[in-house]
Fold this protein.
Amino acid sequence: MEGNILKELISKRRNLISMNKPGNHQSYLEIEFKNAFKNNQLEIYYQPLVSTEGVILSAEALLRWNHPTEGFISPARFIPIAEKSKLINDITDWMIEEICKQLRTWKDSGLQAVPVSFNLSPIRISQQGLSEYIEWQLNKYSIRPHLLEVELTESYLFKKIAYVAETLNRLKELGIKIALDDFGTGYASLEVIQRFHIDKIKIDRLFISNLDITNKKNTAILSAVFYLSRGLDLKVVAEGVEKLEQLEYLKEYKCDFIQGYLYSKPVPADTFEKLLRVGYITPLIK
Ligand code: G
Ligand code: MN
């Protein structure tokens, strides 16, 4: 018995070591990841987006990989693998269906469902048929399009511009909202916001976690973003809100959505459902 545990520990340790070796870790993780998708090791977590008063307004769906022996593996490690192997296309489509299915379950159980956004990979958006697939899934589960939102990062919007713009236009026509993720870390051009008819910008957590209200330059960036957003009729999400003082500051700007550990980390669907039943969250002050 003890020998088995020891063996398991040694093997786990070996896997961890090989995962961290630059030459090896890709292949170990790559093989494991391909199996993970097949073997239902991927799960969707939901992180609430709330008003400055804590009312749950929407959620971001996030992929989580719980490996049977290695535990949770960060998306920062497996998304690049999924993209390289093109498995991201199937995973994205699976995720879209799972979200629609989940929304249907919540609606059927009498809950007031909130819009759910997902991160759309540049690989998937460059493939044919995305808007048709989304429309099909929405119809299949009788979900109104405003309940599904896509999040894009700005960096890749410059590639294959015409094609991406066409797909985004079709999604807009369907009634799906588009958010610009990690705002402020990429090329952040106003041209992108206009051309792609963006509805919402998500201020990257970098600007929130470094928020020092006594630092004039820091606050100047934020106030400029809010000013610009109002003028362009964009909703603003503050990502990575972890402290009460950050929330108080964002309140002054009437920030539309707050996302971050102060309210909730990403949680499994059943936990999110419990939050949804209550409808609001109070800040988790440590
Ligand atoms: O790039 P994107 O905005 O999609 O990233 C979402 C990621 O941010 C998720 O993996 C989530 O776990 C993480 N996240 C969410 N809220 C917080 C927070 O308050 N602090 C930090 N450090 N990370 C967060
Ligand atoms: Mn996102």
Q: What stands out?
A: Residues 87-108 form the longest helix (22 residues). The two ends are 41 Å apart (CA to CA). Residues 47, 62, 75, 119, 181-182, 205, 239-242, 259-261, 266 surround guanosine-5'-monophosphate (ligand 1) (CB under 6 Å). DSSP finds twelve helices and ten strands in the chain.
